[in-house]
Automatic annotation (TrEMBL):
InterPro entries: BRCT_dom, BRCT_dom_sf, DisA/LigA_HHH, DNA_ligase, DNA_ligase_AS, DNAligase_adenylation, DNAligase_N, NA-bd_OB-fold. The active site is at K117. Its cofactor is Mg(2+); Mn(2+). This is DNA ligase. SMART domains: BRCT, LIGANc. It comes from Luteimonas marina. The keyword Manganese applies. Pfam families: BRCT, DNA_ligase_aden, DNA_ligase_ZBD, HHH_2, OB_DNA_ligase. NAD(+) binds at D35, V36, E37, Y38, D39, S84, L85, E115, R138, E187, K304, K328.
Amino acid sequence: MTAPRSPAARAAELRLRLEDANYRYHVLDEPNIPDVEYDRLLRELDELETAHPELVTPDSPTQRVGNAPSAKFAEVRHAIPMLSLGNAFSDGEVQDFVRRIADRLDRPLPKFSAEPKLDGLAISLRYEHGAFVQGATRGDGTKGEDVTANLRTVKAIPLRLRGGKDGHDPLKLRGKDWPAVLEVRGEVYMPRAAFEQYNEHARLHGGKVLANPRNGAAGSLRQLDPRITAQRPLAFFAYGVGLVEGGELPDSHSATLAQLREWGFPVSNLTEVVEGADGLLDYYRRIGERRDALPFDIDGVVYKLDDFDDQREMGFVSRAPRWAIAHKFPAQEQATTVEAIEIQIGRTGAATPVARLAPVQVAGVVVTNATLHNADQIARLDVRVGDSVIVRRAGDVIPEVVAVIAERRPADALPWTMPATCPVCGSEIVREEGEAVWRCSGELSCPAQRKETIRHFASRRAMDIEGLGDKYVETLVDAGLVRGVADLYRLTRDQLLQLKLVLDADTPDALAASVQPHLPPEGSGAVLAAIQRLDAADEGWRAAALAQSIAFAWNPKKIATKWADNLVAAIDRSRDAALERLLFALGIQHVGESTAKALALWFGDLDLIRRLPWPLYKRVPDIGGEVARSLGHFFEQAGNQQAIDDLLTAGQVRIRDGHPPSAKLRDGLHLATLLVEAEIPTITNLRAQALTEVLPTAAGIVDAGPEAFTAAGLPEASAAALRDWLEQPGHPKLLLDGEAAIASLLALAPEADTAQAGPLDGRTVVLTGGLASMSRDEAGAKLEALGAKVAGSVSKKTHLVVAGENAGSKLAKAQELGIEIWDEAQLLAFLERHA
């Protein structure tokens, strides 16, 4: 059995751990333990030194506020030390604090200024004759770091104080309203929303993600280059004063804060003057209730005797004032262990890694899961199963892993990699170049994406199923009546009427009462009893009720049926679909209305489009590699193909405007173009043409080696790159399938367009403003029928802008670029001439 450590040995160990934590946080900006653990260690050391005064050393963390200043900045010695505050963690400690003051002042209800304790970086600002001359961090309380240049970039900090005007020069401020020398103490912090935006930008662009807003504020002020600080979203609140010379301040803390606000300093509007322990605890609870909704992080509240004479009477202990204390909230950071890393698929297919954690209480809530955002974040943090990590929870924000405690890592912990397939539907998980997010490519077939897929499919610009609102979709999916888009075409009037009853009912009993008039007498008792057994506290009770198979005999006097008839009619109308609408309705990543329209125009047939190898989509103007690969991934998923088959089976959906591929496709439909469109490294048009003159078939290229490629005229580097490309899984098949698809397209596409060229062929038109005679969609369709490409924005490639009423920036840009502009009368005249 290990012998218990002596107080001296434990104190030495605690000092080392606390100094290391201070160094990592203040110097390296890389915190390695959560706040609650630091506080616990500091209190343990304080208690040891109180019990054994001989153990106190001058360099003990209990004898100073923070860490020594960094050698990177000049040293500033504070004229009046910036001392820390004692901490209270319970109501009893607050009551003891007030009792000591009341006894010393002989006043039963002393007045306090109560204010939120911001989670930022404490600083001191020195003003001379109203001008900001120096700013410093708190450092060790006696001396800090000169960060004047960085503080000048914080817009919330006034560079010159507000005050009266000089009579001789109204633009010059006179200094009699403030002391000749004034030191203002306060907190630089990073607002929550700005912190999240900064981190999101960092994740997307491979930058350093900040651990928390306080770390962000501290790191920002300690940048050697002030231009970097200027890019950080920093804010400031003043909370007190230090040195004051050549002037006087009000006689209380609250009045001084009011004066500082008049001089131009931001001061928290949450500050209040309260009386006694009850007033302090009431304030603590009220601020605690508002904590989650505040725009900035706080880790507690601060109580200060309001009257400065009372403060002087109470005095100081060695490292803190007796007249002030910080009442801390439950910690928002804790350490725990990662038990697993799983993938969660969102409604848009985004694959988000989630850490399954050993349960830990953070900010009063037991946390078992935490987001890891994306694979890049995992790589940056190097999170592994078995790691000890710091977890943060702020308000209603989903808990997140912010740091790994590397020294506690198990020896067998392995780096994590993104799984290849979706855990929900088995489709491929893909990540496009330049994207931070990985996505499940099984859009139509993935249950996790089902509701979003159906909403989009039914939307006005897709299949336009009018009347199918979000609440209907939610309940139909939850009840299992709609498992995919094809199921929309199997919905009956009875099911929709039952759906309306379910959504209108507040409780199962209310639903039973509304259902009863529509049931046949025989068997109705069992149906009603089954509904009444549902638990109203269960959020899924409505879906469970809808899932029950019930025979209805609708009483038209007790229910409105027209809306259900209208919805059934809207579903029926959408069965005869334009190809471009159906393609858009499928919800393929990056395929918007204009891309769907282009695919329909150039290929004309859904069965053809869904079988093409991805490089051939790039034969359509304005479709690049990203969109083409997205189309390829979508159609490669068996679940998506099955969903399309289900839509087309038995006439559920009929495409009304199919046609042969455009004759324009024939230009460039050959093997050399396929090689280039497949994005094989170093294979240019000239090299592909030279290669296919010697090796004219895909099979010949697949079977050949680098020597044959160099013999065909490729440089050695290009020959090696082509061979490497062909050795990757799926690439030979892509080439062979592409060659077969080219043959099919050439067989289907006419030799030349038989239709006469439209008057707007090759011209790009932009519509802006309101039209009185038709909608913009109708006008766009008429223009496209005459050969135009209708675009959404004005650029140098725009040929014509049609400007209706209240046309805005697009019209202005067209005028700036000298583009031809028509009004509605000119448009109508043109359409009439070419009707």
